[in-house]
């Protein structure tokens, strides 16, 4: 973990929690409802790399989600598994 010049802290890559899940529903503004393996449902947005490469995410897709240890109800979709 590092400290930025603004006084806040920036999470290192090792501080995130990666879990797999299934996209249940699409929401406006590239947001998705994702059901995790443990049964919890979270709100997730698409990472910049997926958006940059125009990878489409549809309901039913298996994805990898990064969760912050500070808020386990929101996440970032970082990978879509090939069917």
TrEMBL record:
Name of this protein: Translation initiation factor IF-1
Annotated Pfam families: eIF-1a
Source species of the chain: Lactobacillus johnsonii ATCC 33200
Keywords: Cytoplasm, Initiation factor, Protein biosynthesis, RNA-binding, rRNA-binding
Major subcellular location class: cytoplasm
UniProt-listed InterPro entries: NA-bd_OB-fold, RNA-binding_domain_S1_IF1, S1_domain, TIF_IF1
Functional note: One of the essential components for the initiation of protein synthesis. Stabilizes the binding of IF-2 and IF-3 on the 30S subunit to which N-formylmethionyl-tRNA(fMet) subsequently binds. Helps modulate mRNA selection, yielding the 30S pre-initiation complex (PIC). Upon addition of the 50S ribosomal subunit IF-1, IF-2 and IF-3 are released leaving the mature 70S translation initiation complex.
GO CC annotation, single: cytosol
Assembly: Component of the 30S ribosomal translation pre-initiation complex which assembles on the 30S ribosome in the order IF-2 and IF-3, IF-1 and N-formylmethionyl-tRNA(fMet); mRNA recruitment can occur at any time during PIC assembly.
PANTHER family in alphabetical order: TRANSLATION INITIATION FACTOR IF-1, CHLOROPLASTIC
Family stated for the protein in its record: Belongs to the IF-1 family.
Name of the gene this protein is made from: infA
Signal among keywords: no
Presence of the UniProt keyword Membrane in the record: no
Compartment annotation: Cytoplasm
GO molecular function, one term: rRNA binding
């Amino acid at each position: 973990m590092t400290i930025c010049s603004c006084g806040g802290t920036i999470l290192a890559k090792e501080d995130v929690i990666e879990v797999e899940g299934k996209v249940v529903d699409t929401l406006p503004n590239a947001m998705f409802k994702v059901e995790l393996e443990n049964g919890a449902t979270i709100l997730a947005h698409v990472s910049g790399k997926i958006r940059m490469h125009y990878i489409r995410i549809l309901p039913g897709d298996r994805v990898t989600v990064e969760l912050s240890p500070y808020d386990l109800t929101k996440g970032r979709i970082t990978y879509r598994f090939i069917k």
